[in-house]
Design a protein that fits this description.
The protein is α+β, with helices and mostly antiparallel strands. The chain has helices at residues 8-21, 30-40, 42-53, 60-66, 78-89, 133-150, 153-156, 163-178, 180-193, 228-233, 238-256, 288-302, 306-316, 325-338, 349-362, 369-388, 394-400, 402-406, 410-444, 457-487, 500-525; strands at residues 97-100, 106-107, 111-118, 123-129, 200-201, 214-218, 223-224, 258-260, 268-271, 274-277, 283-285, 318-319, 365-366, 494-495, 498-499. Strands 1, 2, 3, 4 and 6 form a 5-stranded antiparallel β-sheet that branches. The protein has a 4-stranded mixed β-sheet with strand order 5-10-9-7. Strands 8-11 form a two-stranded antiparallel ribbon. A hairpin with a 4-residue loop joins strand 3 and strand 4. The longest helix is centred in the C-terminal third of the chain and has 35 residues, at 410-444.
């Protein structure tokens, strides 16, 4: 059986030793950060994987590096596997399965996978959760929360990222992933949505043998989608597979708002002329509102409508601080101009998505979790499509099927227009009453106008620093004048023939002058204002 969890104190010491091993005191870069997370274990690997999906919050360099995260985990021994199965079923696993392969098909931080056969001879795959994984993650999350609180990290990096939000998002996602009944539910929902699609398939889930720690699904013996040689030898048309895969992915996103968030080649098989999706542990969900806004964004991009795209992004995102609207609009305008002379099919989806997220990151606009997952997922599917067909372009395929994205539902549009017309009529009736109220307030002197000048923060800060310097200079001058007056008296005691109080005043003025000079010199070298 796997070793039980360490105490919080022992785990904290272990974390410190890992950080020391990587010489954290010498600074950090994306590669070192990824290696540290891998050494820290499954909790931190999962946090890194979530960070890689939030390109609106973290820089491009870090997100790209974190997408390479892997968890190097020693497989559980077969005795541990048997113990977990017996505890999950409250009886011997031999009463359910004819056989289970002792060697796992794969081993990851949360679970490992084994091939097995049921008593009726059907081939299945068992996904078995590692013992104590929930307790280990819960302990690490608790340590993280304490570290954020004690070290005041949340305040330090609040202008970049809300650490408490990241930890909450991770823990919610991790708890869902560790409950295999959620993955079973996702797999069944996916299978149900595409049951009428003649080129897509999802494995069957065996509910009667699935528990919170054990997932049992149909074994898929197909060709991995990246095995191009075998696909060619079997007579498959890779260009056709790429087109169908992209079309199905677009349908998942636009039509259903329920998409596979990790569509790398290892999660796709070709069997009996069908694309088989496997591993539904990471699924993205888009609300209807978000899907409609995404359609608006695509229409704005197709029509080169900058204003519409800006408004859509601001509606879709969460603005964490006051935004400079003109500057943001100019940034989006520059983004649009890059693609002004390109056709829809010539655009590079990965670069476009990254550019938009970079702009959002710069202006502290956090996008919904589903949108962030979609961005990462779209870059992954594009890489998968390129494995199938190097000439494949996701935007080109979207252009071929852009009716799905740019189609205008006349019924819905009519309802929107009717709703807006009624709203405008009601507001029009209220306008005269509100105008009368405003005029009355003006007459009484009760009207207050709040004026906020965007971009005024830096000039005001400079003025503030200038005033600080003037105050120090006035204090120095006051000390010199006061000390000079004191020196005209015959006060005792004396130092070097002058009154001690005057001497102290002169020395204080000298010390302040020297401090001010070196402070200004130091900041000048750093190219900063004092």
């Amino acid at each position: 059986m796997e070793q039980k969890i360490l105490s919080s104190r022992a785990r904290f010491a272990q974390i410190l030793s890992i950080l020391h091993k990587h010489h954290i005191e010498k600074g950090i870069d994306p590669v070192k950060f990824r290696e540290i997370l891998e050494d820290l274990g499954p909790t931190f690997v999962k946090i890194g994987q979530i960070m890689s999906t939030r390109q609106d919050m973290f820089s491009e360099r870090y997100c790209k590096e974190l997408m390479k995260l892997r968890s190097s985990v020693t497989p559980m021994d077969f005795d541990t596997v048997q113990t977990i199965l017996n505890e999950a079923y409250q009886k011997s696993w031999t009463e359910i399965y004819e056989s289970i392969d002792m060697e796992p098909l794969g081993s990851a931080s949360i679970a490992q996978v084994h091939f097995a056969q049921l008593k009726n001879g059907q081939s299945v795959v068992l996904k078995i959760q590692r013992p104590y994984i929930y307790e280990r993650m819960e302990r690490d999350v608790s340590l993280l929360r304490k570290a954020v609180k004690v070290l005041n990290l949340s305040d330090i990096v609040s202008s970049v990222i809300d650490l408490n939000m990241v930890i909450d998002e991770f823990w919610t996602a991790a708890k869902q992933e560790m409950d295999f009944t959620n993955e079973a539910m996702f797999a069944k929902r996916f299978k149900r949505l595409f049951k009428d699609c003649n080129f897509v398939y999802a494995p069957k889930i065996y509910d009667e043998y699935t528990t919170h720690q054990v997932l049992v699904m149909e074994y898929i013996e197909g060709i991995e989608i990246s095995d191009t040689e075998k696909l060619d030898s079997e007579g498959y048309d890779r260009v056709e597979i790429a087109d169908k895969l992209a079309y199905n992915y677009i349908s998942q996103v636009i039509e259903y708002g329920f998409f596979h968030a990790d569509p790398h080649s290892g999660n796709l098989r070709i069997r009996d002329d069908k694309i088989v999706w496997i591993d539904f542990g990471m699924m993205g969900i888009l609300e209807r509102r978000d899907r409609e806004l995404m359609k608006d964004a695509v229409r704005a991009l197709a029509l080169r409508d900058t204003t519409k795209l800006v408004d859509t992004i601001l509606t879709l995102g969460i603005v964490n601080q006051e935004i400079d609207y003109p500057a943001f609009t100019n940034e989006i305008e520059r983004f649009m101009n890059q693609y002004l002379n390109l056709s829809f099919s010539e655009m590079d989806l990965g670069v476009m998505v990254q550019d938009v997220f970079t702009i959002c990151h710069h202006y502290h606009i956090a996008l919904p979790k589903g949108i962030s997952m979609l961005a990462r997922s779209m870059m992954t599917i594009e890489a998968t499509l390129n494995d199938l067909d190097p000439s494949c372009n996701m935007m080109k395929i979207i252009a071929n099927h852009k009716a799905t994205l740019t189609h205008v539902d006349l019924g819905k549009e009519a309802k929107k227009i009717a709703s807006k017309s009624i709203d405008a009529f009601v507001k029009g009736l209220d306008l005269s009453v509100q105008s009368s109220d405003v005029l009355k307030m003006v007459q009484r002197g009760q009207v207050k106008v709040n004026l906020n000048l965007m971009g005024s923060e830096q000039p005001i800060a400079k003025i503030d620093r200038m005033i600080n310097r003037l105050i120090i200079c006035i204090l120095i001058a006051a000390l010199l004048m006061a000390s000079s007056l004191i020196c005209t008296t015959d006060m005792d005691p004396k130092i070097l023939g002058i009154p001690a109080l005057g001497f102290v005043g002169f020395m204080s003025a000298l010390a302040m002058s020297i401090w001010l000079f070196f402070k200004m010199l130091q900041l000048h070298r750093r190219n900063k204002s004092f």
